[in-house]
Amino acid sequence: MTLHWKLVVDANDPHAQADFWAAALGYELEDNSALIERVVGMGAAPPDATVDSHGRRAWRDLIAVRHPDDPYDEDTGMGLGRRILFQRVPEVKTVKNRLHIDLHADPGAREAEVARLEAVGAVVARRVKEPGGEWVVMTDPEGNEFCVQ
Fold it and tell me: Which residues of the chain have pLDDT under 70?
């Protein structure tokens, strides 16, 4: 049995988060516009549950990114592999993440990767050097921690 999974991240602005993480990971924004047109057209969701995102209709309160090499359902646009779904929540982040993403740069390329991520909206929180290794703790535009190894 094959399990399909996604990591779900709470967000205040799911579309901004999806744009950041698509750029950070080299992922693609999912295009669910055909599905959304069908659902709204059947009256199962109101038109105001959608927004224009990059020239296509998207759900206002959630959007996913997927790895460009992974399969996806052509009827719905949903990824069937590595994906992250960002969903709107009313509260802001207040404590440290219990789960985070580690990004592994090529050997010798960590600082260049940190600079690239800063250019798309990340912030360096701290640099760690321990007997077990070195890494940079960064935050995404909503303050979620992730590490660059």
Answer: 1-2
